Amino acid sequence: MKFGGTSVADADKIRRCAERVLRRRRQGYGVIAVVSAPGEMTDDLLELAQGVGENPDAREMDVLLATGEQIGIALFSMALKRVGQEAISLTGPQAGIYADSSHTQARILKIQTGRIREELGRGRAVVVAGFQGLNPRQEVATLGRGGSDLTAVALAAAFRAKFCEIFTDVKGVYTADPRVVSQARLLRSVSQEEMLEMAASGAQVLQTRAVEVARKFRVPILVRATFQNHPGTWIYPDRTDRNQRVGRFFLRRRRAGKEETMEEAVISAVTWTQDLVKITAVDVPDRPGVAARLLKYLAEGNVPVDMILQSGTARGVNNISLTMARQDFEKTKGSVQAAARRVSAKRVLCEEGFGKVSVVGMGMRQHAWVAARMFEVLAKLKVNIEMIATSEIRLSCIIAEKKAQEAVRALHRVFCVPRR
Prior knowledge:
This protein is of the alpha/beta class. 39% of the residues lie in helices and 25% in strands.
């Protein structure tokens, strides 16, 4: 059971979350509760660090940020004991979570389950600090923004849990961001494959890396509201959920008297993200292996890249464009420019003010009408498409950020609003 920062923002909310854990224990479950830093504490700590000076040391940032979760688990454990449930709080290192050496963006290497199993065997609820682990130098390392989701799913995988329950401030996963699209509908279930594409293209319900781990180890996830008795959204391993959802889709169509098409595309959601930067390495020599070298240099600099586009010219050179979040670009600007120089780019163009809109659903790749309809909708809005990327179940376009919300609403009306 994972409780995010909004769920444990104050003492009363912590007590109510503790009662949820108690109810699960009374149902006969052993419970591992993963707890985030209370409220806006992580943001407050980040602001303090920025006040000391720009670009603070990554190691010290991990030492600082890890304290928020430690406050959360101590208070949560106290609350559990208050309602009669024996509990113990463990930091990430104490819980046996081992990570690599990448401060502020560490990846989990392994989980040693002995300590937690020992505590569960004593009838205790184990409260684990999210977002953190122990690196090879025996130092605390944090797992990146949203890392408590990753902690919870990784622990569920390590213990072969029945499911991982994610408590948050929304009812579940929607067909679009309900703050932007008033007609957004709650999804009762979605496949992990679709959820991975949705998370990667802007849906903020779950961290992308958490969904990757869930998919790899086939961990069912239930996303639900912390303080409402709502069933939430199940995120199932792909094959099971694909069969269930396609079956329900065809049943709805038969009831509506529509023609059944076995391989018809099913659109689950329209997602978006904003505050993107487009970086273009201009006039890169058109030789085999240049793009591979560029990406290698970016990887060495821990530069997180989203979309990539190479455009050829008639002069023996190419332009290579890529996108990333502006906050990531601010931290890795030097690495990006150095990588471009190492592949002999004539210059580097950095443009801000972009957003990404995506449609996600099963069976899209074989259906050109999805792309045609999406491009038609954007054209009617006079939206210029800067870059396009596709996968088996996702189609994404980079557009001007100021047009992104309008585009999301229009695409949702076309793809996700049921026809009467």
